[in-house]
Structure formats: C-alpha cells, structure tokens
Design goal:
The protein is α+β, with helices and mostly antiparallel strands and 807 residues long. Helices cover 39% and strands 15% of the residues. The protein contains 16 helices and 22 strands. A hairpin with a 2-residue loop joins strand 7 (369-374) and strand 8. Helix 14 runs antiparallel to helix 15 (751-795). Mean pLDDT is 79; it is low at 1-5, 25-42, 60-68, 135-176, 315-323, 325-333 and 335-339. One of its GO terms (cellular component) is cytoskeleton. Residues 190-225 form a coiled coil. Residues 319-333 have a biased composition (Acidic residues).
Length: 807
C-alpha cells in the first residue's frame, strides 16, 4: 500500500508542477471549484478501487511445484515443522500473498515471484524460512580472511623486480682465444633451400587454411542450433555481497559446482529477486544489459523493493558527510517514536539441521559417480575406494563432435599401493604413459611404453635419490639401452649399450637364460675435480666385438682438444698356449701434453688390465639392467592385475586387520564382562526359592539344597561335553562325506572345484581341531569346577553352620 500511496503523490506533484508552468506562461488555468473540492474524495476512491482490484487478482500457482513424491520420501517420518505452519508463518504467508498481488498489479509483464513454494509435505513455505542460518551470517558465506592472508603470503614469496632499478642481464665473460678455426665452406645450394622452405610453407599454409575452414564450419553448425529456452530458464544462485570480511566485489557461487563467477558474467541474463534468512528483495532495475549494470545496494528501495520492514535491512550507501547529517535529523524525528515498532521478524527456519555421515560425504555425489559431458570431451568422477582399482577421475577427449572416435584418455588414481597417480593413453600413437608418486618399490616415476613385452621401445624415469645407483632415466629399444645417472660417487653420468642378434635357443624366457650379446658399451663421466684433466676419463667405449677400448679424457680449460687413447685388447694366450707379451702397437694414444710415464709398457699394461676388469663390470651391470627391466615389467603386470589399495589404520571400516583386532578386543571384553556377571550370580537362588519363605532352614533342607545344586551343575557339565562331542562327530562325518565325494568325482573336477574342496577341507579340519581341543579342555576342567563349587557351598554363609555340624 505504501507503493500505491507514493504513486498517487507523484501524480499530484506532477499536476501541480504543470499548473505552475502554465501560470508562469500566462495561461489561464481552468479548474472548477467542484473539481477542487472533489479531489481528496477522488483520491480515496481511487485507493478503494485499487484495493478492490488487488483483492480480485488471483495468483496462478502451479499445483505441483515440488519434485518430491510420496514414493521418494516418507513424509510420516518428517518433523512437525515440515507438515504444518505456525501462526507466525501463516501471517508471513498472508503478507507475502498481499505483496505478490501488488507486484502483479504494478508489473503485469514480469514473471510471478517465487515466494512460497510447496515442500515435501505439500505445505506452502516462505523461501526465506527454508534457509537455516549458520554461525557465519549472510552474506558472509566464506571466511575471506584466510583467503586474503593466503594471497598476501603468496605475493610475499614471489620475487618482484624493483621498478626503479632497470633489469640488466650481465653477459658471460669469455676469455679471449688465441686461435680461431675457420668453419667449413657451405657448398649447398641456397636456391634449393629456398624452394624447399617455400614448399614447406605452402603445405603448412594449406593445412592451416583447411583447419580454419573446418573450425568455421563447425561454428556455423553450432550457431545454427538455436536454444528454444534461451532466457526462460530460472536458476537459484548464491550471491556474496562486497563490503564485509574484505570482499572487494560482489560475485556469484554456483551451488552445484561451488565455482565462483563475476556479476559481469554473460551467463546471467537477469535477476528476479534476492532473499536470505531475514528478508526478501525484488529487483526493480532494468536487465537489458544482463547483470553488468545492476547495483547491489539492497538499502535502495528504488532499485530493490523489500518485503519486510525490519531493523536488520541493509542501509542505503551514503557518504560520510550525508551520514553525519542524517544522523542528527533521525535523532530528532525518532524522538518519542522508540516504542512504535512496525517491523515483522522473520520466523525461524523450519528445516532441520543437515547431517551428513562420513560415508555419504565421501561419496561426493549421488552413488559416488558423476559424468560431465563437454564439447569433444567427457569427464567422469568417482568417489575414493568406489572402484577396486582406485580410479577417481577419467578424462576422455574425442576427435569428432559425436564423441565416437577416442583421441586420448587420462585416468587419475588415489590410494594405490603401487603409487600409480596418472595414466595417459594416446589412442592415435598407442603410447601409454604411467606417472607414479614417490614410494614405488622400484622408485619408478614415469613409465612410457607401447607394449608390456620386453625388448620393446620404452622409457623409464626414476626417483634417483631413492635408488642406490642414482639412476635417473632408462631408454630401451630392441637393439639399445641408454641409462642416465646423477650424483654418483664414480661420476658416471651416461651408459649406452648396443646389442647384437641373439643366438637362437629354445627357452621359456629368452631374456634371462639367453641374454642378448653385447656389441658396444659407451660410458661418459662427469668431471672429477680431484684429478688432472689429462687423467680424468670423459668417455669410455668398449668395442667388444672388435676387442678394442677407446678412451677420451676431459679437456683442459686452456686447451681446445682433449687427449685420447685406444687399446687393442687381445687374449692373454695365443692358440698354441703361449703367453702374449704387451707390445707398443697395442696402445695408440694422442696426448696434448705428452708425459714420459704414459709411454712405458708397464703403465699401458696396467691400464689395459684395469680396463679389462671394468669391461667385465660394465657388462655385468648391463645384464643386471636387463634383468631389472624384466622384474619391473613383471611387477607392473602383477600390480595391474591385483591393483591393491592402501587403507589408513584409522579407517576401521575398510582396514580388515584393524577391524579384526577391534572385534577381537570387543570379544575379549564381552567375555570378561560375562565372566564377571557369572561370578556375581547367586548359584543357590533357584534352589532356595523352592523353600517356604517364612520358615527357617533346617539341616536336612540345607543338605538337600547342596546336593541339588551339585547335581544340577554336574548335569550341566555332562550336557556341555555331550554337545561338544555331537558337534565333533557331525563335523567328522561331513568331512568324510566330502572326501568320499571327492574320490568318486576326482577325474571330472575342474581346477576351481579342487580349490573349493581344498578350502573346505582346510576349514573343516580347523573346526574339528578346535572342537577336539575344547572337549579335552572341558574334560580336564570339569572335575576342578565341580570341586570348586563344592568348596563354595561349604563356605557359603547360608549353609556354613549346617556344613560344620555335618562335618
């Protein structure tokens, strides 16, 4: 009603302004006295007419606004707040209904307001009461202090250049060279090179043109598919207003994905209304430019029409001077009106507190699986431990829009015992790449392969600090194997092994029993600062088939060439058995600065013998590398078949060992409790209850009670022994029947049937053994228990005086 009064006052003000303008122009204002007198009654009459029109307006509310049905939710188990409304809620619904009629009258072209939908029990509920406020009031939905602190910490770690100091990159100082070698003359034809370059550029331009045309065609196809529901969809989002908790600007949050979006995002076409647990606001601004020009000042009644007039509503944003000026006026105007309270408090929420169990929270989505379809891609997500292989995410990209031709697959894993983290499968090339976290038994980090068969192309990368040999990477083909090292004590950094054709030999595993013959081994070493450069080997080549060894030493800083040495390795004896003597032609050397001791045959002989031993060691290490590759491949096959998952010791529901231990402890505690209860039982109560309650017990009655108690206990011991004996005989007979069945059908049994038979026999023998032990133990303890009970009866305070007379 306040809105209607404001509208009438605006019309009267406009008429007075128009009359004043006419009077200034000299125009005669003709206004009969009758009209002037009837002006106030006409205003009241207009208000009555509007009230009548508003009362005649009927809101078209859909019959079924809720997607919940009786089949999905049992409404009888819901609390009373779901099934009915309180008096305050009924009053609020009437206020909301009146507000909705006024809104429909003033804005007939807009969509009806979403004010009081039906809940699960078909009861209308105001939308603000469906929100259950938490410890952090709206709009402070998240703790932005921690986010700001994180940003500041991150910026403090990033080194930023000083804007006042120019960044100068110092050039590396190279010592002047005494000699310069002229490069060889280029004899290639420049014309041919230009023609080849031109041809390649034409081919590349043609491919880019075809690709661009294909993309344009796909865009045209997508644009042709118009959305018939564009602008008609209504969705609820979360709005976080700026101003509090250091929120610099307002933004939206998608409640389904928890992603934040700016209010300038093009996905938002407009806003109909806002609400929280305190009030409801209707957007009165034009959304012709989506939400980009909206002002989110909820205290401005021109832009946001509020439903409830309360003390908690947002105030209009003003400057400090205006606020100071208005405060004084408000104090004067509000003097004496403190007792007048026209506000209406929002009723408390009727929704129960949401309780999510750890199991349901861990699923993260219905049934623990979520599929998101993108353009030429599909993303699948699973909850941890839902898949037996630990798969939690899979991203599949396709070549076409119909998603029929797979391009590549990426799979993410968690809680894998083999520490597998990511598997990348390229369908176009057939290349598989496995990524591992630290902790693999073989310190494997990355494994690239096309086939799991040995002696095929593959690349293995390792965590070098977790290995004794400091291996970083191993590259293998059908004929070669290359290994890279880092930080070794012997300064070895590279080893390349070339293999020859294997001699044909029948064996189950040719790689182990019939290894490939080694033709050449090339090893490279890093610089050892403790040795002179002329004596520090940089590269060592073992030409095994040619029986030669080539050495190349490190180059000095003041030299441009390095020393080299080559040994002709011969056998120690000839074909006649005569010992071969070292000769000068067996060592060919080039030394930058010749030294006398290196020319002696003894030095050369010792160097050749040392190289011979090192060659054996290198060949043995190459053979061990081959065996390690076979071991890793075998281990990977077992891991892919078993795909065991690691379970925390604190996860008692999945950890079987922890679960068994807990159950055993509970069983022991329960048995101890029963033992204590049994100790507290009155073993004479059933027999004393047979005596007259008022009469005093006689000696004859006491002896009868004692004999009946002992007789009953003896019978219980006999019954227990018979029960154990019966179970023992039953298990034995069933085992004999099973063995007889096995003897009759042994020929026709499958491997699975034999495994089941062996498993049954093992369990049956275990049960028979346990029953036999229990029977023997019962036979040993029964007499002792009988004597112990008899002693207790003699010492019982109710029978002790009669037992003394008897003794």
């Amino acid at each position: 009603m306040e809105v209607l009064k404001e509208k009438v006052e605006e019309e009267e003000e406009a008429e007075r302004e128009e009359a004043a303008v006419r009077a200034e122009r000299g125009e005669k204002v003709v206004r009969p006295m009758e009209v002037q007198r009837e002006e106030a009654p006409m205003t009241q009459e207009m208000l009555r007419d509007l009230e009548k029109k508003l009362s005649d307006i009927e809101m078209a509310i859909p019959e079924k606004l809720s997607t919940f049905t009786k089949d999905t939710i049992d409404t009888s188990k819901l609390p009373l707040s779901y099934q009915s409304n309180t008096l305050k809620e009924e009053h609020l619904l009437q206020v909301a209904d009146s507000f909705s009629r006024q809104y429909s009258h003033l804005c007939p072209d807009r969509v009806p307001l979403f004010l009081h939908p039906l809940n699960e029990c078909e009861v209308p509920k105001f939308v603000s009461t469906t929100i259950r406020p938490t410890l952090m009031p709206y709009p402070e939905l998240y703790n932005w202090d921690s986010c700001a602190q994180f940003v500041s910490d991150f910026l403090s770690m990033v080194p930023l250049p000083d804007p006042l100091k120019p960044v100068v990159q110092e050039e590396e100082k190279v010592p002047p060279k005494k000699y310069a070698i002229k490069p060889p003359r280029d004899l290639t034809s420049r014309f041919q090179q230009e023609q080849e370059t031109k041809k390649l550029e034409e081919i590349k331009a043609e491919e880019e043109r075809q690709l661009r045309e294909e993309e344009e065609r796909l865009l045209d196809v997508e644009k042709a598919k118009t959305d018939p529901l564009h602008g008609l969809r209504v969705h609820s989002w979360v709005l976080v207003l700026s101003g509090k908790r250091e929120v610099p600007e307002s933004f939206f949050i998608d409640p389904f994905t928890a992603r934040s979006y700016s209010t300038q995002d093009d996905h938002f076409l407009g806003i109909e209304s806002l609400w929280n647990h305190k009030n409801y606001w209707v957007n009165m601004q034009d959304c012709w430019n989506c939400c980009k020009d909206l002002v989110f000042d909820l205290g401005d009644p021109v832009r946001w029409e509020y439903l409830l007039l309360g003390t908690e509503k947002s105030h209009l944003s003003l400057t400090e001077e205006e606020e100071d000026g208005l405060n004084d006026d408000d104090d004067v105007e509000n003097l004496g009106k403190e007792d007048e309270d026209k506000s209406f408090d929002m009723p408390p929420s009727w929704v129960e507190q949401i309780e999510i169990s750890p199991e349901a929270f861990e699923t993260r989505c219905p049934n623990g699986k979520k599929v998101i379809q993108y353009k030429r891609a599909k993303l699948e997500k699973w909850a941890p431990y839902l898949n037996s292989n630990g798969l939690v995410c899979r991203l599949t990209t396709y070549e076409d829009l119909e998603c029929t031709k797979t391009l590549e697959i990426k799979e993410w894993f968690q809680n894998r015992e083999d520490m597998l983290e990511l598997k990348h499968i390229d369908k176009s090339t057939g290349l598989n790449v496995d990524y591992f976290k630290p902790g693999h038994p073989q310190a494997l980090r990355v494994h690239s392969y096309k086939s799991m068969q040995p002696e095929t192309d593959r690349i293995m990368e390792f965590y070098d600090r977790a290995r004794v040999d400091s291996l970083v990477k191993r590259e293998e083909t059908s004929k070669t194997m290359t290994e890279y090292y880092r930080g070794r004590s012997d300064f070895l950094s590279y080893r390349h092994v070339s293999f020859g054709d294997r001699v044909k030999k029948l064996s189950l595993n040719s790689a182990e029993s019939n290894p490939r013959p080694i033709v050449k081994i090339t090893e490279r070493f890093a610089r050892n600062p403790e040795q002179p450069a002329d004596e520090d080997v940089a590269e060592r080549v073992f030409l095994i088939s040619e029986e030669r060894v080539q050495l190349r030493y490190h180059c000095r800083d003041d030299h441009i060439t390095a020393s080299k040495r080559e040994f002709l390795r011969r056998s120690e004896v000839d074909h006649k058995g005569n010992k071969i003597v070292m000769t000068p032609d067996m060592c060919i050397s080039f030394e930058v600065e010749p030294m006398e001791h290196t020319k002696k045959l003894l030095y050369q002989y010792e160097a050749m013998m040392k190289l011979k031993n090192e060659e054996k060691l290198s060949r043995h290490q190459a053979w061990e590398s081959e065996l390690e590759v076979l071991e890793i491949l075998k281990l990977r096959e077992e891991e892919e078949e078993e795909h065991r998952l690691t379970i925390s010791i604190y996860d008692t529901k999945r950890n079987e060992k922890s679960k068994e231990y807990r159950e055993a402890m509970e069983r022991v505690m329960h048995e101890e409790h029963l033992r204590q209860v049994e100790a507290q039982l009155d073993y004479l109560a059933p027999f004393l209850a047979q005596l007259p309650p008022s009469e005093k017990m006689t000696r004859w009655q006491a002896m009868r009670v004692k004999d009946e108690c002992l007789s009953d206990f003896k019978q219980r011991l006999i019954d227990k022994a018979n029960l154990i004996q019966a179970r023992f005989e039953k298990e034995t007979q069933e085992l004999q029947k099973k063995q007889q069945w096995y003897q009759e059908n042994q020929v026709t049994l499958t491997v699975e049937d034999e495994d089941l038979y062996l498993s049954y026999c093992s369990q049956a023998m275990f049960r028979i053994r346990i029953l036999e032990q229990r029977l023997n133990r019962h036979k040993e303890l029964a007499p002792l228990k009988y004597l112990a009970l008899e002693e207790k009866l003699y010492k019982d305070p109710r029978l002790v005086e009669f037992m003394k007379v008897f003794v």
